[in-house]
Amino acid sequence: MSEDDTEHRLGGFDAAGRRWVLALFALGGAVLGVGVPFLARLARDLPWMPFQGPLQLLGSFDQAWLVWLRPVLGLLAGLALGAWVILDSPVLHVGERHLRVERRGAVQRVIPRDKVDAVYRTGSKVVVRSASGRELFAGDVEADARAVREAFLALDYPWEGP
Where is the YqeB PH domain (predicted)? Predict the structure, then answer.
C-alpha cells in the first residue's frame, strides 16, 4: 500500500475492551466453578437428565481444598476462553484497492476491491459478496455499526442497507 492510500481499521478490541472481555469471562468462570457442584447435585436428581454418572461424580467433590480450587480453575478457564475470543475477533482494514482481513495477528484474506459487489451488515456480522453472489467475507466485527458503514462508504464500496 502506498502512502497516499486511505485505510480504515475496523474491529478488534482496544485495551479497555480486552480488559472488559477478560474480566467478564474470568468472573463467569469463577462463578461457574463455585456453582458446578450445586448444579450437578440438582441435575442428577432429575430422572431425564443424561450423564447421570458424571453428574454424581461432580456433585460429590466437596473436600475443603476443592472449595477454593474450583473457582480458581474456573477463573483460569474463563481467562483462556476470553483470550481466545479476543484473538479470534477479525480486524478489517478497508483500503481503496483491497479489503484485508486479519485474525490472530496474521492476514487471513485479502479481497481486491474490484471483486466486491456488495457490502452489508446483518446483526453484528459484516458480509462482503462478489458479483456472482459468493460470500467473500462474513464475520462478527467488533465495531460500531455507523463506523463500519461510514468506512466502506468513504471509499466508495457498494454498501447496501441503512
Answer: 14-160
What is the secondary structure of 36-99 as a DSSP string?
Answer: HHHHHHHHHT-TT-S-HHHHHHHHH---HHHHHHHHHHHHHHHHHHHHHHHHHS-EEEEESSEE
Higher pLDDT, 123 or 79: 79
**Per-residue model confidence as pLDDT tens digits over 65-121:** 777 888 999 999 999 999 999 999 999 999 999 999 998 878 889 999 999 999 999
- What SS3 class is residue 153? helix
**Cα separations in angstroms, 8 against 80, 91, 140:** 30, 10, 17
Residue type, 120: Y
Domain ranges of the chain: 10-88, 91-154
DSSP-derived 3-state class of residue 131 = coil
Report domain 91-154's class: mainly beta
The residue that leads in pLDDT, 99 or 57, is: 99
